[in-house]
Amino acid sequence: MSSVPRSLPRRNLLKIAGGMVTAGAVMGASGCGLLGGSEAQQGGNNQVEKANLRIGGLPTSEIAPLHLAVQNGLFQREGLNVEVITAVDGGAALNSTIGGDYDITFSSYVPIFAAQAQGVAQLKIVADCASSVPNTCMIMAPPDSGVRTPQDLAGKRIAISGARTISELMAKAAMRAHGVDFSKVEWAPIGFAAMPNALRQRQVDAAFVVEPFLTLSARDAGAIPVVDTATGPLEDLPLGGYVSLAKFAEENPRTVAAFQRAMDAAVAEAQDRSKIEPLLPKFAKIDENTASIITLLKMNSRADATRLQRIPRLMREFDYIDKDVDVASMIVTPPQS
After folding, report:
1. Residue 291's pLDDT is what?
2. Each residue of 39-50: pLDDT tens digit?
3. How far is CA 3 from the centre of its chain?
4. Containing domain of residue 178, as a range?
5. Which of 22, 77, 151, 328 has the most CB atoms at less than 10 Å from its CB?
6. Whether residue 265 is found in the same domain as residue 296
7. Which of the residue ranges 88-92, 118-122, 240-244, 299-303 would you say has the lowest mean pLDDT?
8. Are 56 and 93 in contact (CB under 8 A)?
9. 58 and 100 within one domain
10. 244-280, pLDDT tens digit by residue?
């Protein structure tokens, strides 16, 4: 199906896991606001079919290029007025897109491919966002937990952001790569923002943490690394991207192309860390000192089918989905410049 009627209850639209749950509490429909456009401009213009876009985002560092594009007028240059709306997690953001509230959204690839495989919606990948690099996605443990090696994780209580999320998927894949039986692990879904405190209070034996919570866990809880899940078979694993309903992409090709060009430019600028580091305290809700030392994910804009196919392949291996997803058919290829 190409879309879901907006009148349906949103909680029934997407009964799948939410991907990388982030800030733990709903941050509301706040965002960067509209850039440079009047409220009267509701439709298209001579550049795009739809000028005003509502973009779903998360309070995480990987979408820094999106905020950079808003701040530096890169969307405005393409004839777009972009409002970034912060959702609590990737599933909620994707849910709102399927329900018609957002035009394009950032989400973890796990709920994106789960929705596609389950027939919840027909989705198109408009742009890639970020992939894993060492020291960004790690299983950590309290200093006195006795967990020091991957083998020590067997049968333990391990915090993840949520059931059937990319954090659980990467934790299982990393344990399998080290020959560790995860069948008796107790997975504790608590959300990334709560993990530093959970480790400090010894509520769990270990936790799968991502930046900036990885740095906060080491600083505030004295947590130690056990497994860097962004190495070996999971290095450069695509984590999330920007998607729309297929119907939106088909009806607004110039709008999508404009969004892609702006994100290409923003990701190019974002390779200079000094351009995005000042933005992190504003939308990722971390202090300036933390923003200056966290390890950033690898930021991308062009979606590559071969790389992205790794995610649904892993999802099938771990029984997240029961059929293949043709990633190449989901990607909106940017026009030749």
Report:
1. 95
2. 333 477 789 999
3. 22
4. 137-234
5. 22
6. yes
7. 88-92
8. yes
9. yes
10. 999 999 999 999 999 999 999 999 999 999 999 999 9
> How confident is residue 127, by pLDDT bands cut at 50, 70 and 90?
very high
pTM (2 d.p.): 0.85
Whole-angstrom distance, CA of residue 82 vs CA of residue 104: 10
Domain count, the chain: 2
Which of 219, 234, 249 marks a domain boundary?
234
Domain shared by 215 and 100, yes or no:
no
> Which of 124, 331, 139, 284 is CA-nearest to residue 223?
139
* Cβ count within 10 A of residue 38: 9
Co-location of 111 and 250 in the same domain = yes
> Do 190 and 205 reside in the same domain of the chain?
yes
**Based on the domain organization, do 53 and 156 belong to the same domain?**
no
**CB 224: neighbour CB atoms within 10 A?**
18
332 inside domain: no
pLDDT band at 26 (very low <50, low <70, confident <90, very high): very low
- The answer on 318 and 193 residing in a single domain is no
- One-letter amino acid of 255: T
CATH number at residue 227: 3.40.190.10
CA distance 297 to 106: 15
> What separation in angstroms does the CA of 193 have from each of 10, 23, 142, 180?
25, 5, 16, 27
Listing from the earlier edge strand, what are the strands of the sheet with 224-228?
186-189, 157-160, 206-210, 137-141, 224-228
Which of the four pLDDT bands, split at 50, 70 and 90, describes residue 337? low
Give 200-229 as a DSSP string.
HTTSSSEEEEETTHHHHHHHHH--EEEEET
229 with 116: CB under 8 angstroms?
Answer: no
